[in-house]
Structures are given as structure tokens and as C-alpha cells.
Write a structure and sequence with these properties.
Helices cover about 35% and strands about 35% of the residues. By secondary structure, it is α+β, with helices and mostly antiparallel strands. A hairpin with a 4-residue loop joins strand 2 and strand 3. The longest helix is centred in the first third of the chain and has 16 residues.
């Protein structure tokens, strides 16, 4: 069984992150909005990492990466739009194609739930999933998220406008056990 580590993004993660995003670009674009071409460059990824680290320093985001036992970057997970006053944040994750279906998205989401509860003291989390993205929806539901409001025109995937749904998790009332 493969082991992995989930940790906070660092400045020296830019090069492996670029390689990960380039290797999985077509895979991701089958499921979510495509990123601009400029993102897939050294300057683009360095700007991306700098922005995420700046938002982390300001308490608005907690960007994480997932690495395998060999130190290879295999996924990402983020708490974003953290609102300390409202005690809310949005979760997002992306797992590389070669690692899909191995439980990493669930592990990443449980890690984010743990961060939200224990480090950020948040009361609720939200997420968005495109209708038809069964794998992502299963992960959200497995971790206790409840499907909420429909979100029309949530993304453009493979040139088509698609709909989705919002999902929510009340942390304190749900008694979520991140170690399940």
C-alpha cells in the first residue's frame, strides 16, 4: 500500500507543482475549468505559489500538497476563502490521474476538515462539484458533506457549460471524526 504525506505548500514546491499540473492537465480539464495557458510555465506557477503563500500568511487560505513515499507530488488540497469571523472556508482538492481511486481525495479532505477544526477553528465548510463528477461527489458525501443548492453554469468543461451543486459540512454539530 502506498503511503503519502499531506503538508503545507512551500516556495520550493513550485517546480514539482508545475510538473504535476502539466502531467495531469488533460485529466483535470475533463473534470473542472481549464487554467489559462500562462499558468503552465515557470513564471506562472511561481506567481501561483507566491499568491497562495501570501493568502496563507494573511489567514485567507491553507494550501497543501500531497507527496508519496518517494517525495513525488501526487495531489493538492486547499482550504480557501477562509473567513475567520464567519468561521467558514471552501475546500478544494485535485489528485493526479495515476493516483485516482486510491483514497487520496478522501484522505486529503479529511486532512482539510482536521485543519479547519483544529488549526483554524472553523464552524463550517463548503465545496462545489460539477454534476456528473461522481468520484468527487462520493468523496464529499463520504466525509459528511450534504448536497445543497444547485449552481447553474458552474464551469466550462471541454468547451461545454456545466451545472453543479454546492455542498456543506457543519463541523461542530456534525461531530466529524477526521480519523475515520
Amino acid at each position: 500500500m502506498s503511503t503519502h504525506t499531506i503538508r503545507t505548500l512551500r516556495p520550493d514546491d513550485a517546480a514539482p507543482l508545475l510538473a504535476f499540473e502539466q502531467a495531469n492537465r488533460a485529466w483535470f480539464e475533463r473534470h473542472i475549468d481549464r487554467r489559462p495557458d500562462e499558468f503552465y510555465s515557470v513564471d506562472g506557477i511561481q506567481a501561483h505559489v507566491a499568491q497562495f503563500l501570501d493568502e496563507h500568511a494573511q489567514g485567507r487560505m491553507h494550501p497543501c500538497i500531497i507527496v508519496d513515499e518517494h517525495g513525488q507530488l501526487i495531489g493538492r488540497a486547499n482550504l480557501k476563502d477562509i473567513d475567520g469571523q464567519a468561521q467558514t472556508a471552501e475546500v478544494g482538492y485535485r489528485i493526479g490521474q495515476q493516483q485516482a481511486g486510491k483514497g487520496l481525495a478522501t484522505a486529503a479532505l479529511r486532512h482539510l476538515i482536521d485543519l479547519a477544526q483544529n488549526e483554524w477553528q472553523l464552524a463550517s465548510l463548503c465545496a462545489y462539484a460539477i454534476d456528473g463528477n461522481a468520484a468527487s461527489i462520493r468523496v464529499l458525501e463520504r466525509c459528511g458533506f450534504i448536497q445543497g443548492m444547485a449552481v447553474p453554469d458552474i464551469a466550462i468543461v471541454e468547451g461545454k457549460v456545466v451545472d453543479g451543486h454546492a455542498y456543506a459540512l457543519e463541523l461542530r454539530s456534525a461531530g466529524v471524526d477526521s480519523a475515520r
